[in-house]
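Hello K.,

You asked for the raw outputs rather than the summary table, so here they are, unedited. I folded two proteins back to back in the same session to keep the settings identical. This is the first:
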Amino acid sequence: MNVDLARYHRQMLLPGFGEAGQRRLQGSTVLLLGCGALGSVAADMLARAGVGHLVIVDRDFVELSNLQRQMLFDERDISDAIPKAEAAKRRIAEINSQIRVTAIVDDVNHSNIERYANGADAFVDGLDNIETRYLANDLAVKSGRPYVYGAAVGTTGMAFSVLPHTTSDAAWETFEGGSLATPCFRCVFEEAPPPGTIATCDTIGVISSVVGIVANFQVTETLKILTGNFDRVSRKLLNLDLWANEIMQLDIAGAYEKSDCPCCKHRSFEYLDGKAGSSTTILCGRNAVQLRHRQLSQGVNMDAVASRLREHSDVIANEFMLRAGIRDQEKNYEITLFPNGRAIVKGTDKPEVARSIYAKFVGN
């Protein structure tokens, strides 16, 4: 395809871009993991910047409550019942017809992420749960490709870039004779916190402005990576709370040396191998799915989960379990949660739907 570079003129004037940088973007592929709040903003901006191929993977459909912060979608997508990945592809075609978009409507997990990442130069995080972030990090380290983490909930957000320490001759490992590799996600967050300890957008809400800031930080980092400006990639973790007027850059450069990271130091990819994280079982005849964590060093903070869920539904809780009715995507579900993290989601026989309900309303 002939690409008219005139549309990128203002961008090409910037240091580190020029025509050569723009052509590098045009020849690049980015895997967008999720196309919700962060992912939709990132997809929009990367498309406008001229990244040649966007692979967008998301399991959900557009619903009314998304429109407050998910910038690619509109009311037509809701009335047409369009999956987010396909709705994003449709909208991006109207924004930049010079790029290619591959829309994949699926739940990202250890059995498919390597296939979906085939040919991708970088992974951008638009995920809604920490387990899949460990999975993406495993693949980034194993394959020697960058992973740009981001998260936003309430009025707070975080983001940082992973240029993984690899056994290959990655461009940042040999940059001007010195390595520019960074700590990986697991160096910084060694273990996943217990379910129920992390708030989610579905329990405490989210302000759209924090989504925009985090996603645009991710996009900028991705553009640095794709144009080969590895020395410009931030070595700090962006941490902000817009309501408290706090914006910090936390130095995490030493995390690699200080940690005994099982991922990037020992090259143990537990999430990618399917040995860590959660497993699911369809409960025959009950229209329900059981989720069980393979690794969970601490129990669930049941009081915290119950407190958040009471904002949305009636909750029955005791020392043995918690049960609540949940409404999501215009459908009703019932979740029963146990102190060890095990849960039964009633109202579906699809594991990916059950995982989504768990991630949204319990967390992690």
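The second followed immediately with the same parameters:
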Amino acid sequence: MKKIRNAFTLAEVLITLGIIGVVAAMTMPSLIQKQKEKEYAAKLKKFSSVISQAINMAISQEGQIQDWGLTQYISSDGMSDEELAEANTSKDKFFEIIGKYLKVVEYCSYDSTCEKWDRHSLDGTLYASFSKRMVLADGTMILGVTILSPTCEEKHGTSEVLQNVCGEFFVDVNGKKRPNTIGKDVFIFYYTKYGVIPVGTKEETDKSFEALCNRKTSNINNGYGCAAWVIYNENMDYLHCDDLSWDGKTRCK
């Protein structure tokens, strides 16, 4: 009887170990994903601080952004070759000015053939391609800039800062590495008359968190509204639940 009982005990142990192994295999990807999210959030917060200091220093030393002589650029659609060349010169000028106050290791100008790779929106839609523009010392990449209003009068929200938007730029916190997805490792900031602000704050009316940071929303711009959430709430829980809001839950659990 004792030998039989020992045999059953061994079988039970093996079964238990098997169950533990299955559970571990199931939870390991989740743990890795969570660690990645923490890593991206930390890098985004660091970049936010660095770029804010750079823009503020540039304004202090170079004058107000509306006096930098920038040319409006939203899209190349409908632009003549001359207009596009002027816009590209203007975007290079923006990077040249802020680059003085950043640790830049590489820059690809708009009149060059820059390295490109696919990018996706938060819901997985293939959006377009990223172009490497400015690479910082820690590997962070600023991918491109849009000049929405050379006079910094674009309105994107109810706060004074969002009433004076000059333009926006994309940042990839882990460079060319995947997932290359807006709202995961790629985020958007506004540069304004009063400095830099991440897109998607509570006061945002154009690219709100609720509308454009929702994994189930089918929208080519989905992910645009995530940057502020990551910086201020220090999580990316919007990837795991759909009932978060600035006035309600800020974590899934």
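Residues 35-239 form one domain.

Happy to rerun anything if the numbers look odd on your end.

Regards,
P.
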